[in-house]
Design goal:
Blueprint: H1 3-17, H2 24-40, H3 45-59, H4 62-65, H5 70-85, E1 100-105, H6 112-125, E2 130-135, H7 142-153, E3 157-158, H8 166-176, E4 184-189, H9 197-210, E5 214-220, H10 225-237, E6 242-246, H11 255-264, E7 268-272, E8 280-282, H12 285-292, H13 298-308, H14 311-323, H15 328-340, H16 344-349, H17 364-375, H18 379-383, H19 390-400, H20 404-425, H21 429-435
Parallel strand pairs: 1-4, 1-5, 2-3, 2-4, 5-6, 6-7
Antiparallel strand pairs: 7-8
Helix pairs in contact: 1-2, 2-3, 3-5, 5-12, 6-7, 8-9, 10-11, 15-17, 17-19, 19-20
Amino acid sequence: MLEQLSQNLENVFKKIRGHGKLSEANIADAMREVRRALLEADVNYKVVRTFIESVKEKALGAEVLRSITPGQQIVKIIHEELIQLLGGQTVGLELSGNPAIILLVGLQGSGKTTSSAKLAQNLRKEGRQPLMVACDVYRPAAITQLQVLGKQLDIPVYAEEGEKDVVKIAEQAIKESVRYAANVVIVDTAGRLHVDADMMDEISRLQKALKPAETLFVADAMTGQDAVNAAKTFSETLDLTGVMLTKLDGDARGGAALSVREVTGRPIKFIGVGEHLDKLETFHPDRMASRILGMGDIVSLVEKAQEDIDIEDAENLEEKMRKNTFDLEDFKQQLKQLKSMGSMRELMSMIPGAKGIKDVDIDEKRLTRIEAIINSMTLVERRKPQVLNGSRRKRIALGSGTKVQDVNQLIKQFQSMRKMMKKFGKMNKRQLMKNLPMGF
């Protein structure tokens, strides 16, 4: 996510920190490189100009030039300005009305239908009862797609086959929401390959008829300034209340994320960070700014852990570690929970300073191989790894599509880990802190 921009800015910061003292010339050079980094990230040129002027004005202040750590002061200023550029503060959904109506609009291919399901999933986790409405009556199989997603999530979908008047469909869905006991209605509208008069007229009529609490523009982050320009056009015609950015996990540049708030005047409310239906996150400007600058995002990491890790399981695991009864069955469960939190690269990006570790090759496939090896074992073998003789290991390798050497390596690493756990399990807290590796 935004890796290219993060890397380019990190290179600029290294040069800034290399100067014991900063002059106006040093700052001007740094600002030129920051400008280049932002333009390469496909950030709107007007947004870049305003951003650079604001940073430069504050960086030339006496408190920076006379500071003991001027480089860090400039990074602090850029961090603060990035937060403001991204919206300043988190803006949640407005869910007034009974039911509360959320209208999703955007171009074809931006991910509206999938985003409807993701948003419904999020709202249900918060205790809401969502109903999804299929108002994309033009795209082949659009209604079926929403129905399949609804069935997958066990969330109701209202659709009328053959009806082309989307206002009638939506109004009838609102009436039927009582039957579904729904208190939030999410309306998935039709998109086009480009903005056209007919499309905007239909959505305008839909908005006027429904008077939704939220009208969210869904934009594909990977299309950069095209997404921003489309969002601007929609905001001039409709009363948009916010933006949902999809496919941000695949956007290495970040132009849309850094431009859309400034250009449209509307806050980013959600970001899609993966294909799975649980990969929709509330957008936090401060956390995103920290991740862009390689400062990590510990708060989001903790939230992920709290969401995906069962407290009772964690306590049982701690007890097993202390008693040295941790086995491969437990290890398998830990791998499963780790994978549910996201990719290793995603998790590493949330740890402060981890983005700067260039020599660590994160092999996602290795976790899959380890899981395959453990799954090829019997329950007895997972709970008592000491029974794994040569013939058993050969069978496991064959069943998991790996080599015997891979099985041997896993067993060896697991045994080493158990020895370490046994050592730590016998220590009191003071001894444990003393024996932790430096920099832990």
